[in-house]
Amino acid sequence: MLNKYARAFFTRVLTPFAAFLLRRGVSPDAVTLIGTAGVVAGALVFFPRGEFFWGTITITLFVFSDLVDGNMARQAGISSRWGAFLDSTLDRVADAAIFGGLALWYAGSGDDNALCAVAIFCLASGQVVSYTKARGESIGLPVAVNGLVERAERLVISLVAAGLSGLQTFGAPSWLGVLLPVALWAVAAGSLVTLIQRVVTVRREAAEADAAAAAAEGGAA
Ligand SMILES: CCCCCCCC/C=C\CCCCCCCC(=O)OC[C@H](COP(=O)(O)O[C@@H]1[C@H](O)[C@H](OP(=O)(O)O)[C@@H](O)[C@H](O)[C@H]1O)OC(=O)CCCCCCC/C=C\CCCCCCCC
Ligand SMILES: Nc1ccn([C@@H]2O[C@H](COP(=O)(O)O)[C@@H](O)[C@H]2O)c(=O)n1
Ligand SMILES: [Mg+2]
Ligand SMILES: [Mg+2]
Fold it and tell me: Which end of the chain is less congested by CB atoms within 10 angstroms, N or C?
């Protein structure tokens, strides 16, 4: 949903910055790599120590590079298969660091095995949700479904909750601490629903494609 409705807005906002980087000779690949490195560092330095505010601020600063790199490539007319591969592959790395960082917190000083397991579920299910689309498309299916919780939703829900929860460090009320657990459960449940939506779609599309191929073979024989 965010991908559908918010992307156009962020494209307008980020286009001048993307143009500025191109003028300075920065490549889209460099933005992809530096953005991912920033997200990974923010997630793995701050989250395992429970420093959710600074972790979220750092990640947020760098995660928008994922919208800037493609914008730069399109403006410069240099969108490439390699760029698409690099972008998607490093998205998986960034997501693993974010939910991995949260899992490390709950496994350590956060001391909550159940939430550690939920964070690991968010990490794994997010990767599988993305894989369903990549694999479906690689076998020639349209995978004409995005589902309830795409990557943008996973990130916004988790990061808004982590950022607000981190405000407790500055004296904000302690009830804010409940937001992160609620967000993780919501992302876990939403990812499961999304996974089912995508698997059902791929199963239907695969059956239709196989039936069409069999009919074409029968006609030719
Ligand atoms: C007082 C302060 C308190 C704390 C402050 C913290 C505030 C910050 C909180 C949140 C900010 C979150 C920002 C998250 C931005 C996410 C941007 C992003 O990277 O989106 C990526 C997404 C997908 O891009 P791709 O096409 O490159 O990726 C594809 C995708 O990954 C597919 O995965 P799948 O969906 O299938 O699982 C893969 O299949 C595919 O391979 C891959 O290529 O881009 C978009 O979706 C575009 C839309 C982005 C919309 C961002 C909306 C941000 C909205 C609000 C943020 C501000 C909220 C402020 C809250 C303040 C709270 C006090
Ligand atoms: N280094 C890169 C990164 C991206 N691309 C192209 O942009 C598409 C992704 O667009 P986003 O707005 O989601 O970043 C991707 O599929 C590539 O076509 C690129 O060429 N090089
Ligand atoms: Mg990108
Ligand atoms: Mg991306």
Answer: C
